[in-house]
Amino acid sequence: MSFTCSDCGKGFTRSSSLQRHQSVHTGERPFTCSVCGKGFTRSSHLQAHQSIHTGQKPFTCSYCGKGFTGSTDLLAHQSVHTGEKPFSCSDCGKGFSRSFSLQRHQRVHTGERPFTCSMCGKGFTRSGSLQTHLRFHTGEWPFTCSDCGKRFTRSSDLLAHQLVHTGKMLFSCSDCGKGFTRSFSLQRHQSVHTGEKPFTCSVCGKGFARSSHLQTHQSVHTGGKLFTRSDCGKGFTGSTDLLTHKRVHTGETV
Questions:
Q1: Torsion over CA of 240, 191, 153 and 127, rounded to 10 degrees?
Q2: Distance of CA 211 to the CA centre of its chain
């Protein structure tokens, strides 16, 4: 017997898998962290997340000793050492260590953005990205640096920022030696050397290294102002421009 999602037509072999999948469409996250309030679709994801607060990392890489909060993260990490990426994109050939990473990547080619902001209409490929984006509208910055007091919308941004104080740069570019605090920042930087611009405007054909830059560019054609300041009503094409303008009202300096 198969179970099919009425929203997207995806099939599942178990009803429990279908129920879990439906949270992609409903946005429901019934498992909430008691420390920071972050929500999750699965209890196992909540348990793994809680180690961020406790610092516990029970799964250790036998190659380099790096610790992980979950066994899945450890298996994915080990591909860094083995080079194994069993899941390949049929469109561009890019390999991935996890099947869900491949599924998420394929949205680059299809343009699918199933998670939409109810306030400004901006679309996202990940539900987590939508949740983070919503904080730009609500003004919520729940993660604070204990060293300098700077606030962040995501715990990962806080952890990356704290390396500014420690001076650690965990990821280095093999072409120029530049260091980065995050692996995805290194991957994004490497497009400087390769010239790769995978995000293309369907109107004028201009290419971009980041999907966010493409979205901002598209407002040139539509005339849309995606981000609006509630105090004065002024509109901006990008969230960064909105945050910069916010300082006019708050008097905050960089």
A1: 110
A2: 12
